[in-house]
Amino acid sequence: MFDVDLDNGESWRESSAYEPGSKARVADLPFGRLGFAICYDVRFPQLFRAEALAGAEILTVPAAFTRQTGEAHWEILLRARAIENGAFVIAAAQAGVHEDGRETFGHSMIVDPWGKVLASAGGTGEGVVLADIDIAAVAAARGKIPNLKNAREFSLDAVPDAAGEVAA
C-alpha cells in the first residue's frame, strides 16, 4: 500500500481505504502471456520476477504516480523491471491535476526487454502511446542474459555495526 510522507508535504495512506492483494496474476492472450501489477507495485521487483518465472512476456503497470515520485523514479523503475525480467513493460499513467488537488506525473510508456523506451507520452493531458511489440524479443533477451534461469536463493549473514549490533 502506498503509505508515504513525501518531502513536498504530500502524505498518502492507501491502507486507510484499500486492502493489498496477495496473489500475482498472469493471463494467456493471443499476442503473449501478460502479467498484471498496478502503480506502487513497480517498487517490488519480486512480483515481476514471479510473473516472469510464470512465463509473462509482457508486464503491465497502470499507475497514478505522484509528480514528485514520478519525476524521480518512474522511468528508471519501468526500465529496470523490463531489463531484469527480459520482458516488455506497458505502463499507462494518469497525468495532470485531479479534483482533490493531487498531481500525477503521467508519462505512459512502453519499454522493450532490453530496457529501451519504445514510446512515451507527456506529463499533461490525454494521449495514446503505441509501439510494435515482437514477442520474439523476449526470448532473445532472455537467451542473451539468462538471469531467470540462473536465479538462486541466498542466505544472509548480517554483519554487526560499530556497536556490535546486528539489524533485525
Distance between the termini: 22 Å
Strand content: 15-25%
CATH architectural arrangement of the domain at 27-117 and 134-144: 4-Layer Sandwich
Q: Give the integer mean of the pLDDT values.
A: 92
Specify the structural class.
alpha+beta
Bin the helical content.
Answer: 10-25%
Summarize the main sheet.
Answer: 6 strands, mixed
Number of strands: 10
CATH topology of the domain at 27-117 and 134-144: Nitrilase/N-carbamoyl-D-aminoacid amidohydrolase
Largest sheet, order of strands side by side? 3-4-5-6-9-10
**What is the quaternary state of this protein?**
single chain
Q: Note the run of SSEs as H and E.
A: EEEEHEHEEEEEHH
- Our Rg estimate from Cα atoms comes to 18 Å
Compile the SSE list and pairings.
Elements: E1 3-5, E2 11-13, E3 26-29, E4 32-36, H1 45-53, E5 58-60, H2 67-85, E6 88-91, E7 95-97, E8 103-105, E9 109-111, E10 117-120, H3 136-144, H4 147-150
Parallel strand pairs: 4-5, 5-6
Antiparallel strand pairs: 1-2, 3-4, 6-9, 7-8, 9-10
Explain the overall architecture:
It is a single chain. This protein has 168 residues and is an alpha+beta fold. The chain has a 6-stranded mixed sheet with strand order 3-4-5-6-9-10, with helices on one face. The protein has a domain at 27-117 and 134-144: Carbon-nitrogen hydrolase (Nitrilase/N-carbamoyl-D-aminoacid amidohydrolase). The protein is built from 4 helices and 10 strands; from the N terminus they run E-E-E-E-H-E-H-E-E-E-E-E-H-H. It has helices at 45-53, 67-85, 136-144, 147-150; strands at 3-5, 11-13, 26-29, 32-36, 58-60, 88-91, 95-97, 103-105, 109-111, 117-120. The longest helix is centred in the middle third of the chain and has 19 residues, at 67-85. It is globular, with a radius of gyration of 18 Å.
